[in-house]
């Protein structure tokens, strides 16, 4: 087995310089072909991923990927092409292909680069680059230790879906004909384990994982395995519930899905297609008056921190929800023009959302709910983005007198997202730090639960 480290020594700055020079050459070629505007994205990704199962190594994968995308504009006509081949003839062919596509497309009044005045001019160090000199032998040892700790933690663990470890580095350069050049580099590392308890129809599966920008912040592999075991055996001998309306507490790891549904509804693409239940809702209260969501793109060491978006527009701290009111949409320049608005610096997505907490920790939320359903897993895609109707399979635990009583599955929770958002009673401080959406457990006062 090759024991070469993922990156040794760190040559990322030199590679960024090469990507920047390549971007400039491609922009020059686009101008030479008559493009009125152009933009180029160049990226390199390296990674090491190991999977083990039942004490054996299943896969060891070392990756190095490259991507080059060229977009040109001839007036309001747009063409795009991509390649991973750095040979001069391939680069020239990519630019020619993008130009040929643009010449045959129809005018689109919303097409074009983001406004030059909005380009980022400051590029602070956001502390997102933490490479891990992880070799394959060490990765295998860590993954095996993680799985073994979980498998040995409880005699009821009968099987395993395995343990995995991954380490990745990403370099990217975005440049456009406004003269903007933005360089980014970031890392992400993950260890996870999934286990199976019980036998036959009584089997239950669960797991745990840890992810971070720096490997030094990952949870200990043995602790991850043991937590995976604890979560798995806790789900044994589940019951169903009588159909009815109950308080529902979404644990932190599933609560962020509610924020995801909100983002889908306030994103530009859904809005200009009129496929959103929150169309024309800016300025309206859709959450309780204490509720807030703030975007923190310049957060040091944030999982999705960035000084500029995918179009070079400067990012800035701002509220999405304040005092329960929707303050803005989530827009790139194209969707903003379609809506007659200005980009919010969200081309490519949002950066580090933080949901305001108004309650204590997880145990405090259980005690406050007293009796109801704790949801720890959601299944299916039963959400209608146009109407807001919500219906998803769920599993978790029934809570009585503020204490977990027994596991439940085979149930469906349902409602309408407008009603669910307005019915949020508490957000806990038990934030799941494994996502760029920072939210604790969320208590909804009442939802329909379909069981037996």
TrEMBL record:
Domain Metalloprotease TldD/E C-terminal: start-end pairs: 243-451
Entry GO MF terms: metallopeptidase activity
Limits of the Metalloprotease TldD/E central domain: 130-236
InterPro entries: Metalloprtase-TldD/E_C, Metalloprtase-TldD/E_cen_dom, Metalloprtase-TldD/E_N, PmbA, TldD/PmbA_N, TldD/PmbA_sf
Keyword annotations from UniProtKB, A to Z: Hydrolase, Metalloprotease, Protease
Domain Metalloprotease TldD/E N-terminal positions: 38-102
Sequence similarity: Belongs to the peptidase U62 family.
Identification of the protein by name: Metalloprotease PmbA
Species annotation: Pseudoxanthomonas mexicana
Gene name, Swiss-Prot/TrEMBL: pmbA
